[in-house]
Amino acid sequence: MVYDLAKHKGQRSKLVRILIDKGIRDEKVLKAISRIPRHVFLDSSFEEFAYQDKPFPIGAGQTISQPYTVAFQTELLQLQKGEKVLEVGTGSGYQAAVLAEIGAKVYTIERQKELFDKTKVLLERLGYKINMKFGDGYQGMPSYAPYDKIIVTAGAPELPQELVKQLKVGGRMVIPLGEGSQKMKLILKNSETDIVIEDHGDFRFVPMLGNKNA
Ligand code: SAM
């Protein structure tokens, strides 16, 4: 049983209103956020702040992304029920839960063992069937490729070509690119050789860790 009170549901409705006011329109994304108990993805000391539109620390020097960022990235994916989506940077598992709640088949990779272990237990307890891998997101998960959609939730210094390779033709990838601060990029793979990159504004993410930190 998940600890989810009427007050949490009320706080989620307010959060959804804030996201609508900031321009989020995708009903599937808003519905997922209105259903998921974000407070259980945070340390209990942050519970009372869980429905503020802010990032919070989740241990191992990492953060759960701000709800607006989660909603913005997910909206850009134009995710449909039944699609196969790869997430790089599982973190708390909240973004993966949003993807699963929309009805996608979710594959997610996390580099930090401590977070991987904790989040695996939580997502299973919440009843989500998500394929989780402990490893380096730069390598993707080639055994399940190609993916309809790919979402990267850490700042990458450059576009990982291995992930582009694992994206289906016709697929979409959302990735924050840059060191320090990032530009949110939408990658449209029109064919194996025709890759269009759109810019969707400034964001700030924790950096994507390379092999050295394994
Ligand atoms: N999506 C997460 C959530 O909903 O809580 C937030 C992600 S946090 C901003 C970025 C995550 O990416 C961290 O958990 C970090 O350990 C992970 N990460 C960083 N580099 C990675 C890599 N090379 N492969 C996989 N995960 C990585």
Structural class estimated from helices and strands: alpha/beta
Annotated CATH homologous superfamily: Vaccinia Virus protein VP39
Major beta-sheet overview? 7 strands, mixed
Query: Architecture, CATH level 2?
Result: 3-Layer(aba) Sandwich
- Which kinds of small molecule does this entry bind, naming each only once? S-adenosylmethionine
pLDDT average, as an integer?
Answer: 96
Classify the helix fraction into a percent range. Answer: 25-40%
Element-by-element helix/strand order: HHEEHEHEHEEHEEE
Strand numbers in spatial order across the main sheet = 5-4-3-6-7-8-9
Beta content comes to 25-35%
Low-confidence stretches: none
- The radius of gyration computed from the alpha-carbon positions, rounded to a whole number of angstroms, is 16 Å
What is the count of helical runs?
A: 6
Write down the CATH class.
Alpha Beta
**Count of discrete domains:** 1
CATH T-level topology: Rossmann fold
